[in-house]
Amino acid sequence: MLVERLAGEPDAGVREAIFLSLVQIANTAAVAGLVDCLRSDDAHLRNEAIEAMKLLPDAVAPIMTGLLADADPDVRIFAVNVLESLRHPDVEKWLIDVIERDPHVNVCAAAVDLLGEVGTEAALAPLQGLKARFGAEPYIVFAADLAIKRIRGS
């Protein structure tokens, strides 16, 4: 019922209360409802869902691989946005999988930016591979070089 109410709720305070309730409930239905919000045309609703999902590392982790493989590249980018603050030990692994496999340059760009902040030496070879794969995309080359530099600490 809470998820159904979100889409049509005009009051920001009520929406915030619903999101807080979904975070507290944190069951499969609540997480599925948050994922549904990622597909909304309402940018505020999507952003609120992303922020809520960031607070649910244990509940979101089991579905993250599926979100990062979603048919919609926007949903994949939103999933990377969730990873930004998701305190989970697999964040780097998920990001590496994205830059190694995702065919969409914007999804990879979102992932490489975050890898520059959370990546370890395990990300260095995949970042080099990303540069080779998207060598014609100046931003990807720049972002990968920056991430490599940050990871190496130089």
Descriptive overview:
- This protein folds into two domains: 55 residues, Alpha Horseshoe (Leucine-rich Repeat Variant), CATH 1.25.10.10; 82 residues, no CATH class.
- It has 154 residues and is an all-alpha fold.
- Helix content is 76%, strand content 0%.
- The termini are far apart.
- The longest helix is centred in the C-terminal third of the chain and has 15 residues.
SSE blueprint:
Layout: H1 2-8, H2 12-25, H3 28-38, H4 43-54, H5 57-68, H6 73-83, H7 91-101, H8 105-118, H9 124-133, H10 138-152
Helix pairs in contact: 1-2, 1-3, 2-4, 3-4, 4-6, 6-8, 7-8, 8-10, 9-10
Terminal residue distance: 51 Å
- Series of H and E elements: HHHHHHHHHH
Separate helix tally: 10
Estimate the strand proportion: under 5%
Q: Count the beta strands.
A: 0
Spatial shape:
elongated
Question: How do you describe this structure in short?
Answer:
This protein has two domains: 55 residues, Leucine-rich Repeat Variant, CATH 1.25.10; 82 residues, no CATH class.
Features:
154 residues, mainly alpha, Leucine-rich Repeat Variant, 76% helix
